[in-house]
Amino acid sequence: MKDLFGQALLDYQNEKYTEDIITSTSISDEDALPIPYLFRDFKDMPKLEKRALKLTKGSVLDVGCGSGSHSLHLQKKGFTVKAIDISKGAIEVAKKRGVLHAEEKELLAETETFDTVLLLMNGTGIFQELTQLTNYLKHLKNLLNTNGQILIDSSDIKYMYEDEDGGYWMDTNATYYGELDYFLSYKGKKEDVMKWLYLDFNTLNMACESLGLKCELILEGEHFDYLARLS
């Protein structure tokens, strides 16, 4: 990984912001990801994120923390938070912004236990592919203290395959429809292609049940997105 995401965050933090990140997927065209949005305060967060932060309890692991916005809000509320991200630049920015415990680390390398694990901004994306789902959920379950919880959001993107007649054009020979190739570019440079998983609630629920995890639908957003609590 070239860590263009991290470089974009560093540029903004260091007041060198001149352009946004450009993203696209295997089924969608290019779109701008405004870098200031990645530095938002609680009042500017979507309702799913606000609800997740309000439901947070005890010691917290913020997975894929980015610039640290969720961690900073929770710290101000008195929570003990550990923030992790695979982006070196993101962790550097999170620390500069005041996140007290931020570490460059993959989720599967985490070994501490917590009362709340947060995976927000399409948290299921970190799982990459449906075949990895059980592996990640098992690991997440092992990170929970007694009565702990995982707060995770995603979207059911089946609507993106709908045709004008209300039918769906999905390739029945293809993998799960929520598995996408994710492309990111910044200042003319292209990041390596990433795998990204959007997961419908029913599929998440079934996977949780098979592992002895309770899966609750906490809140549905306005565009096929949802927040779930696993315990």
What does this structure look like?
- The chain is α/β, with parallel strands linked by helices.
- Helices cover 25% and strands 29% of the residues.
- It has helices at residues 4-13, 47-55, 69-76, 88-97, 133-142, 201-210; strands at 21-25, 28-33, 60-63, 81-85, 102-104, 114-119, 144-155, 179-186, 189-190, 194-197, 215-220, 225-230.
- A seven-stranded mixed beta sheet has the order 5-4-3-6-7-12-11, with helices on both faces. Strands 1, 2, 8, 9 and 10 form a five-stranded antiparallel beta sheet that branches.
- α1 (4-13) runs parallel beside α4.
- The longest helix is centred in the N-terminal third of the chain and has 10 residues, at 4-13.
- It is globular and about 50 Å long.
Element layout with pairings:
Elements (H helix, E strand, L loop, with lengths): L3 H10 L7 E5 L2 E6 L13 H9 L4 E4 L5 H8 L4 E5 L2 H10 L4 E3 L9 E6 L13 H10 L1 E12 L23 E8 L2 E2 L3 E4 L3 H10 L4 E6 L4 E6 L1
Parallel strand pairs: 3-4, 3-6, 4-5, 6-7
Antiparallel strand pairs: 1-2, 1-8, 7-12, 8-9, 8-10, 11-12
Helix pairs in contact: 1-4
